[in-house]
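fwd from M.: "can u put these together and see what the complex looks like"

so here's what she sent:
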Amino acid sequence: MQEDVINLIKENVIQGRITKDDEGMDEGMVGQPGVTELVEQALASGVHIRDIITKGLSGGMNVVGQKFEAGEYFIPDMLASAEAVGAAMQILQPRLATSGIKTKGTIVVATVKDDLHDIGKNIVSMLLRGAGYIVKDLGNNIDAQVIVDAVREEKPQFLGLSALLTSTMARMADVIQMLEESGLREQVKVIVGGAPVSEEFAQSIGADGYGADGFQAVAVVEALASDIES
Amino acid sequence: MPREGILVDKPYERLTKEQVELIHQVSMQILTDPGLISFNREAVDILHGHGAAVEPIAGDHQSWQVKIPEQLVLNALDNAPKTVKLGARNPGNTLIMHGDEPRVYFITGSETNIWLDVDFPAYVNKDDPTREIRVPEFKPRRGTVDDLCQSAHVCEHLDMVDGYIRTVNIQDRDITEENKDVNKFFASLNNNTKHFMSGLTSLKQLNNVVRMAELIAGGKKALEDNPIISFITCLVKSPLQFVEDTTDTFIEVCRRELPVAVSSSPQAGTTAPIKEAGIMAQINAEVLAGITLGQLVKPGTPVLYGSVPVRARMDTLSDSYGSVETSQYNIDCAQMARFYGIPNYSTSGVCDTKIPGQQSSIERLFSDIVVAMSGPQYLHCAFGLLDCNSVFCLLQAVLDDAHFKMIKFFLRQPRIDQPEMEAALKQMRAVVATPQKLYISYIRPVLRSGEISGIYPFEGSGEKDDVFELAYEQMKDLLARPVEHIDRETTAKIFEEIPGLLPRLNVYERGS
């Protein structure tokens, strides 16, 4: 019985269905419970949160990743699945501490001051949630001081900064500088991204990682997370 | 169900109504003064018998000046069917063409002498031997029956090819004038289930190819109902001459009431006036002369208004299919054919350059887009043709298929209506209330519905241009896919009844 509901969660992650109203990939799924309803159902039936996350949510995302690699899935499919996992994590988050499960980590994301572009940052946020991270999205046009304050209060393991303009990408360096001045730099890994940003630029401002796109951003965060653990 | 083609809702037209009328009027004048020179006696007799003024021309060759009165042309235009059906071995590949409906079908052709092989030899950098690149090399050679089989095979699997005109002239040692027609018809029909149109090398072979088609279609009546073959005849040589042998062929095809494209191919600057007004009035007169003769032979014969106008190259005086004017003439002809309500056989996509590459892509894509936009029904759009219609490259045909996917998608009618707007409004109201403010989740329902155009299929990775190599791989994949050959029993009957077929074309007897 417990295996059934976990398999259903996994299947609905693959289908990218958050609720019973979502269509998913296959025909005739509307009306059947989606990931959020199934997670509630699993919790009510006493399924351990660890199994929900590892076998259901992560298991589903692994399959989605394979389908994307094979060219069967496109980015909208990936994002739908990632959103479904993100919605499930919202439900599970309050219970994580009491169940003794360590989260994969928290990441604060923001588009820097004077830059209103946030599509890339939003997509990265969705993918990170789908990968099991807790994402605190500060929004766009965010003052460096607000970002530093958020790092101080939320104590995230990661900070993601985004900029789309050559005129605003320098603000990323300002944020890193202020983190150092505030004594917070050592406690957070800074990842930068955005159209004008490059690996070289990331290194030049002292960032810890650079993501050329959403998928690379997640991969960089995962790699840095491994470094932190080891 | 016939093939869909693509309906061009608002065809691109260059001519005003007055200009169309003027071309028509001047064409009528041309048909009476100077009229046409006919080298074909039977055409003269037929036209004379219906009121055309005829006078012998003094000289070595027997020829006559024929002046065709306007009423004869108008009657012929009344008699010519306004809807033409071109059948196919697979009935799902049938083409239905209405003269007043700009529904475009993409067709291959025409016959070239040279087949272009492609290979990808590796080249090593002299300064850094670890660096190696593969560069496409094209090697021309004379076309063979085997090449024609391969071409028909691949075109069977190219989604955008709606009908097949043989792309390569078969020049094997064992091919003669007597057996060329039966072998080119069989090689094409046996490897392709789409409609097949061809010219005829020898009139003596007409009965044989028609009989072959009857055997495949299931009998004489079945061929009438499902004309799996049709003919193309350039009976009028520009300027304004009925050719002796092709006109014979045309008359015989009309007697059998098989569909036929009445094609004329004047070259602006040499065989037609260099300016648009002149070539348009002349080609229109030439096509109308052919249609008139055909309808006098057999009223109701299904005909296509066939236009292959080109401009001359100023450096060689050869055909310049890549010139911009060539596309303009073809667009004008599509409009003239629609004016008469007769389906149009049009031309696009032939390029001047000899090998696939940037010039080839630019020239062919330009004319393919603009001519397709004008809404000709039977767009003989030169899949794979290069070097002004003298070279065929199968790799280029595969590349062209991708072009036509884009063009076909582009020509789709806009879908803007109340339900679409209501759905869009609903999405907007929902999305602006979300933190991400992205419409991405609404992509999925349409992602696999065919409503979104695809990525260019031969896109390379990173900084490398892999177009030719990827297209070559696809070409090999298509060749590896089986085709539905004519069944064993019918094949046996064909080989029994039709003389001159090469035994190696019988797929059931190979190796035995």
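replying to her w this: The mean pLDDT of chain B is 95.
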